[in-house]
Every structure is written in structure tokens, then in C-alpha cells.
Amino acid sequence: MVYKTGVRHVTNFLQEVDILRGLSERHLDRISALCEETDFIKGDNLGDQDAPGHKIYIVRSGEVKATTGAKDKSLVVRAVRECETFPVAALFDPPIQITNARAATDGTAFTIPRVQLIELCELEPRIGLHIYRAACRILVSRYRHTLNRLADEHSDNIELSFNRTGGEL
Q: Residue 78 and which of 5, 23, 68, 150 are 20 to 30 A apart at CA?
């Protein structure tokens, strides 16, 4: 694995990123070396629901809307802002994006190829363990938030089916 040098400014930014906060400077330097900076403009497609997640985005500036559903009936699930990572689910197997991602504003992001990040996690188990713990915390928090929203919107009019494998509504 080849690493870039002169990435101190990236390392400084990564100290505040949701899945990386708390990693050592040495570990952040390793991750910084994998980052490529990219610009996006309002309306850019940054990922499609159910498509493979080949890269991880870390928003540096701007905002990205995560939506679910068909384009004509999409539902905004959340806004991804500075120092947040998406698609978090792409870190798992299979690396499938759970939502669509569209740039809500102009901005910049660092991208990391998923394969290279996974390779680094295998070479540096502390990095891997930290990222996976953080990713699990993020996904549990989002899942809990989604369940609370469902409960608030549907009160007694919704029932989960436990006869299926995915907890379908």
C-alpha cells in the first residue's frame, strides 16, 4: 500500500470526523494518505440506493441529502454535514448504499476508496476496530431515531411483522 506525504491539513480535519474522532495522530496520518479531495455542486449524484458503495465520503463543506424511495416519491432521511461520513453502511459486507445521496449545496469532500480503507483496517487493527465501533454507534443511533419517528407518526396504527426476516412494516 502506497501512502502520500504532506497530509497534515487533512489529518487536522479528520480529528473531528464522526467515525475517526479519538484516533491517534499516527492513525489519522495513515487515513489522510488515502484521502482525495473532490468538489461537488448542488444536485450532483453522490450515490444511489442499493448500489455498491465503492468509496467513503467525508464532507468537508456543504451539505448532502440522504433520501430513500423512488425519485418521484423520495423521502429525505437526513442531511449529511461537515465532518460526517457517508455511506457508513458501505463499510460492511456487502457494501451496499442504503440511501440515495444528492448534493444539497455546493461543497467539498474527502473520498477514500473502500477497498483501501478496508486494507488499512486489516493492517492496523486498532484503526479497524475504532472505525467499526464508531460506525455501529452511528447506525444504531440512526435506527433508533428512525424507529422513534415511525412511532411518533403512526402511533397505534402500525405493527411490525415478526414472521419475516427483516422486521418489515
A: 23
